[in-house]
Amino acid sequence: MKYVIIESGARQYKVQEGDVFNVEKVETKGKEREMDKVLMAVDGDKVKIGKPVLKDVKVIAEVIGEVKGEKIRVFRYRKTEQYRKTIGHRQQYTRLKITKIEV
């Protein structure tokens, strides 16, 4: 079983080849994106841990598109002032598919 732990934005993801997942919106110029912050790589019984990142491991991801997350509703209320306010928010994400992991 071969998988890696990558960092994108301020979050960490455990991914394998063929995985499809969402990351916070990133500007991409092409259809492929190379993930350079690889924190850990596992290939069978071999485990490599970066201090803080691994320089010899490459993860190549294909950009599928941009999607929106679920709607979050924020309700603000003050009892004595008769103040009510509802705000909605949908986070923008970039959907990636892992095509190649080179350990």
Q: Tell me the overall shape.
A: elongated
Strand arrangement within the widest β-sheet reads: 2-1-5-6
| Most strands sheet | 4 strands, antiparallel
**Number of domains as seen in the coordinates:** 1
| Total beta strands | 8
User: Average pLDDT across residues?
Assistant: 93
Taken in chain order, the helices and strands follow as: EEEEEEEE
User: How many helices does DSSP assign?
Assistant: 0
The portion of residues assigned to helices is: under 10%
Structural class: mainly beta
In terms of per-residue confidence, which ranges show pLDDT below 50 for 5 or more consecutive residues?
Answer: none
Span between N and C termini? 13 Å
Cα-atom radius of gyration: 19 Å
Strand content: over 45%
Explain this structure.
This protein has 103 residues and is mainly beta. It has one domain (2-102). It is built from no helices and 8 strands. The chain has strands spanning 2-8, 11-15, 20-24, 32-35, 38-43, 46-49, 58-78, 83-102. A 4-stranded antiparallel β-sheet has the order 2-1-5-6, with no helix packed on it. The protein has a 4-stranded antiparallel β-sheet with strand order 3-8-7-4, with no helix packed on it. β1 and β2 (11-15) form a beta hairpin.
Topology of helices and strands:
Blueprint (H helix, E strand, L loop, with lengths): L1 E7 L2 E5 L4 E5 L7 E4 L2 E6 L2 E4 L8 E21 L4 E20 L1
Antiparallel strand pairs: 1-2, 1-5, 3-8, 4-7, 5-6, 7-8
Offer a quick outline of the entry.
With 103 residues, the chain is an all-beta fold.
